[in-house]
Amino acid sequence: MSKWLSALLATLLFTGLASAQGIQQTKGNFQDKFRQLEEVLPTPNVYRNASGAPGYAYWQQEADYVIDVELDETARRLSATETITYKNNSPDSLRFLWMQLDQNIFRKDSMKEMATDFGGIGRRGPSTSAPGSGEPARLSLGELRRQQSMDDNAYGYDIQAVTDASGNPLPYTIVGTMMRIDLPRALKPDTSLKFTVDYAYNIVEEDAVSARSGYEHFPDDEREGGNDIFLLAQWFPRMVVYSDYEGWHNKEFLGRGEFTLEFGDYDVSITVPNDHIVAATGTLSNAGQVLTATQRQRLADARDAETPLYVVTPEEALAAESGDPSGMKTWRFKAENVRDFAWASSRKFMWDAQGHHQPGAENETVMAMSFWPKEGGELWEKYSTASVVHTMKVYSRFSFDYPYPTAQSVNGPVGGMEYPMITFNGPRTDLQDDGTRTYTFSEKEFLIGVVIHEIGHIYFPMTVNSDERQWTWMDEGLNSFLDSVAGYEWDPDIHWNRSLPRDLISYMTSSNQVPIMTQSDSVLNLGPNAYGKPSAALHLLRDTILGRELFDFAFKEYAQRWKFKRPTPADFFRTMEEASGVDLDWFWRGWFYTTDHVDISLDRVYKLRLDTEDPDIDFERRRQEDADKPQKIGVMLNEQQGIEPWVDRFPEITDFYDENDIYTVTNKERNKFKSFLDDLEDWERTAFERAVEEDKNYYVLEFSNIGGLVMPIILGLEFTDGSTERVYIPAEIWRRNAHNVRKLLVYDKEKELKQVVVDPNWETGDADIDNNAFPRQFIASRVEAYKSNPSFSFKRRDIMQDIKTELDTDEEEETAEGDAEAGDDIPETAAEAEIPAVEPSASE
Length: 844
Hints:
It contains 22 helices and 32 strands.
């Protein structure tokens, strides 16, 4: 290879590395926190332009489904046939198609199952101490139950046939939770393919295996054998996304990274026992065949009701609970332009509804509806449908009119999970000995919060169709931000948590965190990372950095640009900057690409006064400043001992310098001052003399950035006259020095600072408020007296006494594990326990 070619390749390699990594600082400690993100973000193109909007050649695929499914309640098994019409809108020819087989995650040999660490993420706490730690290893009863359920049942899809429109078999290969279908001829651009999949699978018991769907059994119902609630999601093979930025999105489903799907139209026929009530994505198209005339009239009346009306009453639901079906019934639902389909079925459901009106929208009346068993009680009657309506009112202000004809909340075993037009939510009441049902404040908070959160997901990502498998924060973080806005608008006195910057301090200062931009399945603590920290960032951006007017305009622009489309993080970042007119690269870089935290210390404050340069004024002031200094300790002790200074004992030794000190003014200094004034330009002399006359207070404040995350510096100032002031210093003050900065504040001489506090309203999430005040403040706390209580020890057991204890033979019902993971927001590890009830579940 010639030297010039070697040099050229070396240059190209260096350029590529520089482009990928950004320019690296190797000398000194300079850090460019304001380096532009264009070095990191994908290059704009005809599909996604530099403003963050879809490009003129933007495309996405379409998948339409016609499905016939039957529920075998006794066997707890689904059997179905689906016909898919797949339209290739891409510029590429496709030689094969990929489908998602999410139920395969429950196979004992699945990648998720085999790759789960003992005691690690994705379990009900199988170990609290691992072997070899000096304590016995532990397996929770919930984990044992899970293992037994998987031993006793064959979970995962039973794919029975894949055929083309003519009934000819199509070859397919199953790869974990994916299935590749090989085509006899490549599917060319702007052409469609119709094919059919016949399949079945055994429905998982959600309480046993922790899922986003499944059945829940109620053995104590009056009906022989009890009753079930079925929540069905990820229940049919679905098309994998093919996109402009990744091609086929065929990453294995590991449980945490959720889904990204194609939009399409659905026609679904659901056959269930004829005493079941079914809730589903879409609108019911055969109400005359499945509802009574009375129920149909109630549903019609609910469209204009001021409060929710029952469609299926509690009395009707209780009667169905104790009966038996006399056959099967088919419910047919149709949905247009949705990216998924879910449904629920049970004879236990009561059903209420209320119309939500949005004049001028495509769907001017949205039916807000809730389905719940008697176990939901008054809690669901009061708050579920009301929360659905409230959510749509708030979210539509920030995005667009609710885009679908129905919005539903269904109670079941899943703590919280969302799908187009339907959500699964878990909180319930407790049955008391006297037959009444009560609920705690936390259950009330949980229900309102989970309904807001999950209905909010119908906006993000069910309509603004972000890639949850890759970037969880794009749906969970944006939605957590909006659900907290809606929560505070519902009741500001409820402690909605994990959404504001002040709520995330413990996480952002911890050592077990990763950047927000980490792929979903690799995130250590999903709750604070994907929900809380992005939400806190957006609150900070809205209320502190941009202000509500700029933020709300930009956020709504993003939502409307990407409605029914598939945005990436770059599209969000670019849109927010382009629509607000503010360079926010420093903000995205710090909050989303690093694990820095906010800790700005106010180290010292200098109070300065301007010298007049007139020696007759300045020298006297300096003499007084010298006199005001604390007396030298030795001189003070001499006076206390009565030691008389030598010059006082012998006054004859005094001379000229005892009458004239170093501050005595001479004509030399006066002439120098005159000369200084004469040498000034007219404008300089005018400015100087005005400053001398005004004699203002000049305060220099020194700050250090301890946490590493550059932020605006917000000051609360208190003056000696009792007045206060808020000063906002933009984050750009850190542009040339990310470690230490100084700021000059100037006030009239009558305005003297008494106290300076950084972030006085705790709005930036500053991790250490003890270094925020100057002068420093006392740190208030409490101390508690306690009596030592020794922990359990084999050596301390009083066996002689304990052996006399009688065996308690009363049977006690074992309670279920309290840390169920079902849903999309519950913590999966102890480190995630700061996630509050308002953010319901985190599923596997």
